[in-house]
Amino acid sequence: MHLELGGAAAAAERLLGASWRLTVAAMGVIVFALAISTLASHRDLDYIVWASHYVADGRWNVYQAVYDGPARPFIEGFTYPPLAYLWFGAIVAVGKVFGLYGYAPWLVPQPLSTAEYLLMRLSYLPALLAIAWTARRFCEGFLCRGEDEPTGGLAFLVALSSPILLFVGFVFGQFDLLPSAATFLGAYLVCARRPFAGVLAIFVGIWLKNFPIVFLVLLLPVLVTEFGWRRALAPVAVGVAVSVLLVAAFWSPGFREGYLAFRNHGYDAIVWDGPVRTTLSHWLLVGLVVAAGWMSHFRGLALWQKVSLLYAGSIVALLAPRFWFPQYMAWVAPALVLFLLAALRHRALFFPLAYGAVNALYLASTFILFPDNVDTNMFRALDPDVPGLATRLHLAALAGPLWTAIAVLLLVLMALFVADVLLGDRFARRLEPLQTVAPRAQLVATAIGGITLVALYVAAHVANATLPWGG
């Protein structure tokens, strides 16, 4: 049955290219995301808004504005690239038009109102939608072309309902969705043979956070051999030129003591210790450099295979062996969606279960590994005086095994993704599931499971903060 839609719903259906049921489901996910965003936020969002108010007040060099003022000790916390503060400064300026962000004296970060938090989260929605749209394009253009039934709309819904993305953006409140979306979109555009737009999208990610630099460096030899020196280096030259202009515009004592002074390299998992100290991340990145050189010299792989492997590989290599912060996993979330889409051909329940397991373990890790950031900080709007969920349930001992399980799962799933992309049907013929599950059923179950996981997570914290407890 076809239901005629009008107005906004019809426009959304055209945008998604999906049935009215998928359109309504996507709208439901967005409403759910905004609803949970009113319950919690990490203190970092207060800090980012406070820093960015200088832009809204006409002092675009926030680093020097703090350096010159009474809040100078805070300068060591100004660790993000300039574009991040310019973006949030613009949001604060819009909010001021509607009477938000007007409290004074702005000398220190202050907790925001529900409406002020909500406006910040609204600014994340385009990034979440961009990730979902890009996942759909990867599915329809490269990963799901052999399927009998169209699955692109469901791929959109699965990415939209990613527990990691919903937590990072709409519970934790961090802005990693923005650079993650730009980098993911850039990877797809390069796969679609649009290198200029793709490389510049990756640079947007770099201007918001530094992670995509690794992916861009790995991508360069493939760009050169696929498009030639001129087409490959022209967008890189533009991106570098804009980067230089940004640094020149913000160069100041505050910029040097803030963003340029930030160093955070102490979170690698050590796999060799002695006179020579190295890390698993270094090993993996060296392997990726060799892989990029190999792929740039042989014709056996399509461009989309090379780019998607380097994209997912660079992110997993950076984060899987490291002790990450919760927001960093927003970079891995799109790669996990690609893993699921690439595995649809196997028609096996294992792959959506593995995807769900990583997401579930991640949500558990947010309050077990980081109780001071989540239990007693993020949900403070409910009741900051109750013990955190990890403390209440005595889960501290699980921190080490939990982080190890996530790290190993990421590495294993990356290996399976490599096999799927490199070997295609040859790998699929090696796997014959005991019970087949249709790709559409896998995606529907994954989307429902993602929303359910986040709902249970939020409900557990709400219950912990509001229900009476004995003892």
What this model shows, in words?
The chain has helices at residues 7-16, 20-36, 43-56, 62-67, 82-97, 114-122, 125-143, 152-160, 163-172, 177-191, 195-208, 212-250, 253-257, 280-295, 303-319, 333-342, 350-368, 374-378, 389-392, 399-423, 425-428, 439-466; strands spanning 270-272, 278-279. By secondary structure, the chain is mainly α. A two-stranded antiparallel sheet has the order 1-2. It is globular. The chain starts with 6 loop residues before the first helix and ends in a 5-residue tail after the last helix.
Give me a quick take on this structure.
This protein is an all-alpha fold.
Q: How do the SSEs run, as a string of H and E? A: HHHHHHHHHHHHHEEHHHHHHHHH
Continuous helix count: 22
- Overall 3D geometry? globular
What radius of gyration results from the CA coordinates? 22 Å
- First and last CA, distance: 56 Å
The strand count comes to: 2
Name the quaternary structure. Answer: single chain
Protein topology:
Elements (H helix, E strand, L loop, with lengths): L6 H10 L3 H17 L6 H14 L5 H6 L14 H16 L16 H9 L2 H19 L8 H9 L2 H10 L4 H15 L3 H14 L3 H39 L2 H5 L12 E3 L5 E2 H16 L7 H17 L13 H10 L7 H19 L5 H5 L10 H4 L6 H25 L1 H4 L10 H28 L5
Antiparallel strand pairs: 1-2
Helix pairs in contact: 1-2, 2-8, 3-5, 7-8, 7-10, 7-16, 8-22, 10-11, 10-15, 11-12, 12-14, 12-15, 14-15, 15-16, 15-20, 16-20, 17-20, 17-22
